[in-house]
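User: I've been trying to design a sequence by hand for this structure and keep getting stuck. Would you show me what you'd pick, starting by listing the structure so we're on the same page?

Assistant: Good idea, let's start from the same input. This is the structure you sent:
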């Protein structure tokens, strides 16, 4: 299995995966809104080189978007007390594993690949992500994968847990 940048020919696969993930969330009674992602959204990230897939040969098992935050005044960073971070920040969003493949540690492999990309980048970006604060399973997943809890913050009527990873050991 390999983590690599998504190809243009994989856009529909990722959009379909996001819809299947949303359907699975609804079926289990979750209120989480994950997708489906739009073709335009995925296509823009594929074109920018900020969409990655976990592939087993030709089979796409998962995907993730890890995009740089380019605005130094990005208000969410200030809300999360991260506006003083000096190195570049990449925001990790829409981490997804095909529902039929979940539970086999493929998310661990996908995150390891993304962290390897960041660690090998000349600017050594910090990766930031958020998840619903009440999702203990997801919080444990990110902690197990080397992300540290930065804090819990209000987000329009609910709270998000913000996690940070960098390759400096901080």
């Amino acid at each position: 299995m390999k983590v690599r940048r998504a190809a243009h020919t994989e856009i529909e696969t990722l959009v379909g995966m996001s819809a299947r993930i949303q359907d699975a969330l609804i079926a289990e009674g979750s209120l989480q809104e994950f997708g489906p992602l739009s073709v335009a959204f995925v296509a823009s990230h594929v074109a920018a080189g900020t969409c990655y897939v976990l592939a087993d040969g030709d089979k796409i098992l998962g995907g993730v978007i890890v995009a740089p935050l380019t605005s130094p005044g990005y208000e969410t960073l200030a809300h999360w007390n991260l506006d003083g971070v000096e190195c570049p920040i990449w925001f990790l969003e829409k981490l997804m594993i095909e529902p039929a493949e979940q539970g086999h540690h493929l998310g661990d492999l996908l995150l390891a690949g993304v962290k390897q990309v960041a660690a090998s980048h000349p600017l050594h970006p910090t990766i930031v992500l958020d998840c619903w604060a009440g999702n203990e399973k997801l919080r444990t997943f990110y902690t197990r994968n080397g992300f540290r809890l930065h804090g819990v913050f209000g987000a329009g009527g609910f709270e998000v847990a913000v996690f940070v990873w960098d390759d400096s050991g901080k």
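That's my pick for every position. To get oriented when you compare it with your attempt: The CA atoms of residues 51 and 65 lie 4 Å apart. The beta strands are 2-5, 51-56, 59-68, 89-97, 126-132, 148-154, 159-165.
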